[in-house]
Amino acid sequence: AQSVTQPDIHITVSEGASLELRCNYSYGATPYLFWYVQSPGQGLQLLLKYFSGDTLVQGIKGFEAEFKRSQSSFNLRKPSVHWSDAAEYFCAVINAGKSTFGDGTTLTVKP
Amino acid sequence: EPEVTQTPSHQVTQMGQEVILRCVPISNHLYFYWYRQILGQKVEFLVSFYNNEISEKSEIFDDQFSVERPDGSNFTLKIRSTKLEDSAMYFCASRLYGNTEAFFGQGTRLTVV
User: Fold this and answer.
1) Where are the beta strands (DSSP E) in B8-101?
2) What is the pLDDT of residues B21-67, one digit of tens each?
3) Any residues with CB less than 8 A from the CB of B71 and at least 6 apart, and which?
C-alpha cells in the first residue's frame, strides 16, 4: 500500500533563510506526488505536483520540489522564507485518484 | 478557474443529530471523494464514488456514513447520528476521468457539541 512519511513534525526557520521540508514515499510504480499548504482553519492549497518528466518542479509562492526516485523522496524547498509561509505543509501521493497524505510539517517563521 | 465548492463552511450540530455536508464538484468530473481531517491531524481518506456507487471506502466510513449524488451537480456526505469524535474538517474532492489529480474544496468544519 502507498504511504507518505514526513519525518519533521515541526520546523522553525528565520525569515529570509532557506527551507527544506522532507517527504518520503512508498509506492510500487512511478508516483504522482503533491505538496499542499494549509493555514489554520483553512482548506488545502496545492503548491506543486509531480507526474513525470523533469524531476525539479516549480510551484506557486516561490516553492520548488525535487523528485528523487533513488531516495524515494520529494522534498520541498524555498530559497528565502517569508513570514507568511508559516503554515502546515502536507505531502501526498495519489494512486488511481485516491490521495494518501503525510502527517504534515508545521512551519514556524521567526522574525 | 473551475473549483469544488463546499457548503456550509462551518456547521455546529448536537450529538446524535444527522448532518448533511454538501459539495458541488467540478462540472465535468466523474470521480468524487470525501476526506476527513481531525484538528491537528493529517487528512484521511473516507470514500470514493464513481458511476453512482461507492468504489472504495476506508475503515472510518462505517454504517453511520453515507454518500449520495442526488442530482447532476451535488455530492453529499451524510452522518446519521453524529458523535463528538466526528468533529473535524471534511474535504470534498473531484477528478476528471483519466486524470489523476484531484481538486479539493475548501472544506466544511463540523463541530459536534
Assistant:
1) 10-13, 19-24, 31-37, 43-50, 53-57, 65-68, 75-79, 88-95
2) 999 999 989 999 999 999 989 999 999 999 999 999 999 999 999 99
3) none
User: Taking CB atoms and an 8 Å cutoff, what residues of chain B touch A97?
Assistant: 31, 33, 48, 95, 100, 102
Touching check for A96 and chain B: CB below 8 Å? yes
| Residue span of the structural domain in which A57 resides | 3-110
Task: Tell me the nearest-neighbour CA distance from A15 into chain B, angstroms.
Answer: 24
Number of domains in chain A: 1
CATH of the domain at A7: 2.60.40.10
Angstrom distance (rounded) from CA A48 to CA A79: 16
Domain at B5-112, CATH homologous superfamily: Immunoglobulins (2.60.40.10)
CA–chain centroid gap for A110, Å, is 20
Do residue B102 and residue A97 have CB atoms under 8 angstroms apart? Answer: yes
Determine how β-strand A10-14 pairs with β-strand A105-110: parallel
